[in-house]
């Protein structure tokens, strides 16, 4: 059998050996070609190495991106060469040497900053790097700080501290005993404390479940506060109005010193109403039935008659009934007292009546002027109430209330005399005399009125200040308003049937018997 062999085995072997050597050489130096597998290098300047070594990790935001390649000593600082793989940082980035493990292993931490990227072989200056604070730095700072201490002052301070501790030893011992007892109590209450912590955990769980509701509550509260801030002007106006109301109330209390007595009476009335609560309820219930019946009665016919008894007390209604329906026989002084006319507003007994026979006006008062700014009669003074029956104004004493020091509802007194009420006492003045005849009842004299009567004026109409009590007399004389004018023509007859003319009474004219 023939073996297949090349024609020149020596040449073939040499070519194979050369190719193997070339492949080995290229494989050993392949990574040293910069254009193929080279990584960009960056540099950072530090004041000291900070225990950083070549081969330590380079980290960005907690992720390892490269290693420290080399540390070189430059003039006054250290230059650290490092690589970051394919990551890019800005020119404003910061470098810091941090401790990675408890054994002191360091790591180069990068904080990316800036928008302009840092080029390859770029360098970060000392102002953008930070070295760790080590133990020798602490000792160096402590040595610098202690260099300026005053040793004698420190000794004196320590001596004073020692004396203070010696003096407070008994109290300190008691305090420590208290702390020990507190610790014992906490130890005895361990189960309760655990239970309390468990309940607290449950509360925290509930709060966690309702967290969204709490968030909405806080948001709503924020919205409410915003609305209150927007309404601050309205709130300020409200506060101002409340202050004004308080001022008015204060003035009301100052102007009415007897207000406390009135409030006490109102309190008494309210107590009576509370005691009669059931009676009032029954009254309202029965009144409802009565109103329903009255409505049915009023709606069932063309008219209805109703009588209401005891609607108001007799003492309140009678003067008004007399004035409205009788018109006569009313005693003016009783009427003024019943109406509550203040004493200083009563007719002046030394004045002159009006031309129509009415009583004279009240005495003049001085108030509302620069020289007399205040009221002529103070609120709550005796002259601000109706006078009693034994203290009515008379010619010799037109204002008897001026000598009193307390009103009808009591008080602490001390009211000054109303000097601004212009009265003129006359011991020989004219007493009350009968008034106009129309004020008297038929067959009885007219009630007495204060003041000086005046005669009727010449131009008064016939029958003034009187009222005829007998049947009508003869026809009055023709009017002199338009003398010389003849009577007008009779009215033209209407288009319909005419009524027969009525009889004419003697001494009358016209065709209707008038």
Brief summary:
With 514 residues, this protein is α/β, with parallel strands linked by helices. The protein contains 12 helices and 12 strands. The protein has helices spanning 9-29, 34-37, 135-146, 151-167, 169-188, 190-209, 211-230, 232-255, 259-275, 277-299, 314-326, 332-338, and strands at 41-46, 57-60, 63-74, 77-83, 94-99, 106-111, 123-124, 129-130, 364-365, 421-422, 433-434, 448-449.
Can you put this structure into words, describing what you see?
- The protein is of the alpha/beta class.
- The protein is built from twelve helices and twelve strands.
- The strands form three sheets. An eight-stranded mixed sheet has the order 7-1-4-3-2-6-5-8, with no helix packed on it. Strands 9-10 form a two-stranded antiparallel sheet. A two-stranded antiparallel sheet has the order 11-12.
- The longest helix has 24 residues.
- It starts with 8 loop residues before the first helix and ends in a 65-residue tail after the last strand.
- The C terminus is likely disordered.
Question: What's the SSE blueprint?
Answer:
Elements: H1 9-29, H2 34-37, E1 41-46, E2 57-60, E3 63-74, E4 77-83, E5 94-99, E6 106-111, E7 123-124, E8 129-130, H3 135-146, H4 151-167, H5 169-188, H6 190-209, H7 211-230, H8 232-255, H9 259-275, H10 277-299, H11 314-326, H12 332-338, E9 364-365, E10 421-422, E11 433-434, E12 448-449
Parallel strand pairs: 1-7, 2-6, 5-8
Antiparallel strand pairs: 1-4, 2-3, 3-4, 5-6, 9-10, 11-12
């Amino acid at each position: 059998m023939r073996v297949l062999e090349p024609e020149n085995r020596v040449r073939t072997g040499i070519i194979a050996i050369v190719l193997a050597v070339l492949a080995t050489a290229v494989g050993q130096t392949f990574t040293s070609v910069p254009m193929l597998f080279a990584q960009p290098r960056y540099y950072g300047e530090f004041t000291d190495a900070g225990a950083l070594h070549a081969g330590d990790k380079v980290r960005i935001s907690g992720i390892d991106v490269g290693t420290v390649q080399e540390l070189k000593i430059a003039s006054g600082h250290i230059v650290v060469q490092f690589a970051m793989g394919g990551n890019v940082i800005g020119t404003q980035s910061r470098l810091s040497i941090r401790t990675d493990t408890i054994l002191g292993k360091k790591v180069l931490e990068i904080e990316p900053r800036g928008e302009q990227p840092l080029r390859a072989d770029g360098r970060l200056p000392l102002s953008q790097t930070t070295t760790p604070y080590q133990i020798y730095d602490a000792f160096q700072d402590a040595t610098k700080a202690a260099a300026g201490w005053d040793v004698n002052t420190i000794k004196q301070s320590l001596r004073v501290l020692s004396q203070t501790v010696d003096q407070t030893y008994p109290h300190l011992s008691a305090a420590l005993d208290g702390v020990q007892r507190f610790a014992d109590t906490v130890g005895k209450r361990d189960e309760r404390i655990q239970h309390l912590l468990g309940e607290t955990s449950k509360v925290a769980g509930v709060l966690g479940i309702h967290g969204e509701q709490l968030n909405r509550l806080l948001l709503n509260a924020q919205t409410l506060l915003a609305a209150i801030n927007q309404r601050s002007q309205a709130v300020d106006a409200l506060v101002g109005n409340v202050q004004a109301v308080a001022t008015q109330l204060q003035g009301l209390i100052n102007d009415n010193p007897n207000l406390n007595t009135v409030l006490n009476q109102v309190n008494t009335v309210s107590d009576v109403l509370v005691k009669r609560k059931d009676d009032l309820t029954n009254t309202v219930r029965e009144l409802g039935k009565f109103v329903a019946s009255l409505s049915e009665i009023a709606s069932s016919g063309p008219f209805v008659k109703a009588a209401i008894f005891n609607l108001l007390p007799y003492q309140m209604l009678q003067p008004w009934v007399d004035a409205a329906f009788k018109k006569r026989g009313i005693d003016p002084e009783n009427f003024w007292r019943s109406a509550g006319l203040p004493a200083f507003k009563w007719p002046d007994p030394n004045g002159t009546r009006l031309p129509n026979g009415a009583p004279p006006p009240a005495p003049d008062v001085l108030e509302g002027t620069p020289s007399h700014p205040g009221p002529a009669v103070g609120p709550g003074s005796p002259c601000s109430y109706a006078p009693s029956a034994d203290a009515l104004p008379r010619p010799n004493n037109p204002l008897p209330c001026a000598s009193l020091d307390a009103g009808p509802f009591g008080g602490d007194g001390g009211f000054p005399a109303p000097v601004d009420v212009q009265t003129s006492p006359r011991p020989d003045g004219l007493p009350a005399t009968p008034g106009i005849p129309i004020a008297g009842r038929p067959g009885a004299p007219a009630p007495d009125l204060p003041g000086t009567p005046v005669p009727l004026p010449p131009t008064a109409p016939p029958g003034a200040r009187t009222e005829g009590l007998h049947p009508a007399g003869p026809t009055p004389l023709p009017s002199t308003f338009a003398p010389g004018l003849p009577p007008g023509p009779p009215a033209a007859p209407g288009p319909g049937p005419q009524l027969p003319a009525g009889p004419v009474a003697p001494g009358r004219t016209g065709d209707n018997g008038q």
